[in-house]
Amino acid sequence: MKIVGLAGPAGSGKSTLGKLLARRPGYARVDCDELAWEAYRPGGPAYEGLRARFGPGVLNPDGTVHRPTLARLALTDPQAKKDLEDLVHPAVMAQVTKLAEEHRTRGTRVLVVEGALLLSSPHVDLELFDLVVWLEVPEEERRRRLAAAGIPPETVGARMAAQNDLRPRPHPKLVVLDGRGSPEALADRIVELLGISS
User: Please, what CATH class does the domain formed by 2-194 belong to?
Assistant: First the structure.
């Protein structure tokens, strides 16, 4: 089984490309954002740590984490962002590793792992991947895409500011692709880079 990571800032097209690849026979997709949300549900591996670090102000009345409040903290406070990532990223990567083993057992040919911070988080073991693709898209185009997706302008601005210095760390498995191309052409290029028949 081949494992490919899709990384890049908000609006770079990771989800569109990941979903497109996952439609191919023998391909599957893992979304690190979804795994993060699972990690901080009550009983999840990051829940108690989040509650201890951020307090009751990030909780709903039923005890679940209020994601917009947590996101706002992470987007506006660099220390809060680091603390959040230190709590959540190890749990996410443990789950990615577990899911990779499950997919290997099932006979999945290619597992696509989608996550903005795959190439910047110190908690990501890049040895897990056969290829990591960084989608490069100019900021103005990313703003346009996020706005078209219905994300409020203030949220778009906050995301852009928080990811302003998001750059891939150099790695032998890294390939940078222009994310402005058609998703279909990008998907074909990734399959070609993996060196497998489509």
Answer: alpha beta
